[in-house]
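A protein record pairs a chain with a discrete description of its three-dimensional fold. The following entry can be read in just this way.
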Amino acid sequence: METEEAVAEGAGAEGDPAAPLIALFADHHVALVRMALLIVGDRPTAEDVVQEVFIAMHGRLERLHDHDRMLPYARKAVINRCRTALRRRKLAERLHRHYEPPVWSAESAVLLDEEHRQVLHALRALPDRQREVLVLRFYLGLDHAQIAEVTGISRGTVKSTSSRALAALARKLGEEQ
């Protein structure tokens, strides 16, 4: 499997139609995987989601003319594929095939301290839309308009969802507002 550095070096000569996508991968792959991880709760699924997005974008290179819009498009695609993964997971749970994400493996537990685990557990317990809005707002630092664009909801809904999500997160963590 190639590393991100090898992919970036192999960006090809000028005029390569894949060069903008390769640059996007080199610059934002890790951040997109982290965003997906916060939404789906396990690294293998997050990596698969982001990989699927880049594969799909590569298949649509001829339609991706506005290179400045590629990152917002990728973010939106990652969110949508995370939603699909979560729907599939819920369906498996309804069929009594309980899914236990490996995010709390021994290796991960060493990397995360107790406070981070508590926040991630509380975040994971939020409804999907609330979790998405908080991840986009506080992890990626997107403003309300950008979140509305990525999630496909109105700015007002983003604001109210964010407010409700923060209140629910505070309750789950036992903090006073």
Observations:
- Residues 70-94 form the longest helix (25 residues).
